[in-house]
């Protein structure tokens, strides 16, 4: 409903095609010098002992770059989830509220390498901001994260990776040791429509289990009054997950607000 209303009011970005093409290209780059605020909705159903349960997740992901000098940027990426868990056989899991926050800091050169590669690296922090025990880890965490990509014409290909270890928090809760691998590829058309395929795979070293959602997404750059934004929709398929974890198909919708300089 929200997407339909926005499409009715918005139109393709035609007034400044060069700027629109540059914005679409920057959106495909996780360490671009562009302030953006993606607001993402995910809906997933569960299997195994949790058959019939579902989790809806609204994620706000502000990305803010800072220019350190003429050669380097610092890109901050904050992920704040709001969850609604229902249908679990364990009543303690049926909670709604704020989840744990992650903050990534990427030190990134302003210019690509001689081979055309763009990269960024730095720390990732886990902050125990969950409003309910069932929605978070109750742990502080830290680890490395990095991204490398190449943009050639309309194509973007790359990989984002990271690892988190818990370093403090509630001793009665399980420790955190998790690796994330996010390879991605996207194509942006002349009408500023971006088609992408990627995964947000994670491996829990404590439980020895993978979670691998395969995601295919399409996003359109639009103009709503003076504001430029991107509206995206994606289908998600869980290729691997814990026995009682998410199953089958899921849905993702995303609205990204852009604040170009």
Structural class call reads mainly beta
What is the 3D form?
globular
Count of spatially separate domains: 1
Largest sheet: 16 strands, antiparallel
Q: Going by CATH, what is the homologous superfamily?
A: monomeric porin ompg
N-to-C SSE string, H for helix and E for strand: HEHEEEEEEEEEEEEEEE
Instruction: Tally the beta strands.
Output: 16
CATH fold type: Porin
CATH class: Mainly Beta
Number of helices: 2
Q: Indicate the proportion of strand residues.
A: over 45%
| CA-atom Rg in angstroms | 19 Å
Distance between the termini: 31 Å
**CATH second-level architecture:** Beta Barrel
- Residue stretches low in confidence (pLDDT < 50, at least 5 long) are 1-9
Summed over residues and divided by their number, the pLDDT gives a mean of 93
Query: Portion of residues in helices?
Result: under 10%
Question: Which SSEs are present, and which pair or pack?
Answer:
Layout: H1 2-9, E1 11-12, H2 17-27, E2 35-46, E3 54-60, E4 63-67, E5 72-86, E6 96-98, E7 101-109, E8 117-127, E9 139-152, E10 155-169, E11 177-188, E12 193-199, E13 201-204, E14 209-224, E15 227-240, E16 246-259
Antiparallel strand pairs: 1-14, 2-3, 2-16, 3-5, 4-5, 5-6, 5-7, 7-8, 8-9, 9-10, 10-11, 11-12, 11-13, 12-14, 13-14, 14-15, 15-16
Compose a concise summary of this entry.
With 261 residues, this protein is mainly beta.
How would you characterize this protein structure?
The protein has helices spanning 2-9, 17-27, and strands at residues 11-12, 35-46, 54-60, 63-67, 72-86, 96-98, 101-109, 117-127, 139-152, 155-169, 177-188, 193-199, 201-204, 209-224, 227-240, 246-259. The protein has a single domain (2-259), classed as monomeric porin ompg (Porin, Beta Barrel), CATH 2.40.160. It has 261 residues and is mostly beta strands. It contains two helices and 16 strands. It has a 16-stranded antiparallel beta sheet that branches.
């Amino acid at each position: 409903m929200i997407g339909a209303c926005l499409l009715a009011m918005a139109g393709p970005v035609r007034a400044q095609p060069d700027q629109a093409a540059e914005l679409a290209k920057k959106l495909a780059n996780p360490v671009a010098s562009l302030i953006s605020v993606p607001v993402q909705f995910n809906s997933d159903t569960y299997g195994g002992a949790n058959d019939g349960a579902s989790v809806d997740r609204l994620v706000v992901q502000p990305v803010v770059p800072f220019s350190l000098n003429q050669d380097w940027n610092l890109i901050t990426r904050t992920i704040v989830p709001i969850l609604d868990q229902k249908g679990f056989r364990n009543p303690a899991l049926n909670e709604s509220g704020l989840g744990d926050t992650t903050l990534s800091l990427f030190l990134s050169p302003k210019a690509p390498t001689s081979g055309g590669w763009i990269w960024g690296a730095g720390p990732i922090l886990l902050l125990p901001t969950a409003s309910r025990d069932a929605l978070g880890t109750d742990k502080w965490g830290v680890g490395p994260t990095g991204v490398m990509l190449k943009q050639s014409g309309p194509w973007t290909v790359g990989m984002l990776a990271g690892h988190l270890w818990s370093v403090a928090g509630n001793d009665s809760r399980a420790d955190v040791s998790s690796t994330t691998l996010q390879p991605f590829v996207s194509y942006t058309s002349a009408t500023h429509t971006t088609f992408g395929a990627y995964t947000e795979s994670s491996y829990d070293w404590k439980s020895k289990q993978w979670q691998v959602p395969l995601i295919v997404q399409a996003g359109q750059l639009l103009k709503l009054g003076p504001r430029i934004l991107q509206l995206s929709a994606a289908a998600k398929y869980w290729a691997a997950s814990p026995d009682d974890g998410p199953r089958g198909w899921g849905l993702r919708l995303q609205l990204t607000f852009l604040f170009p300089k």
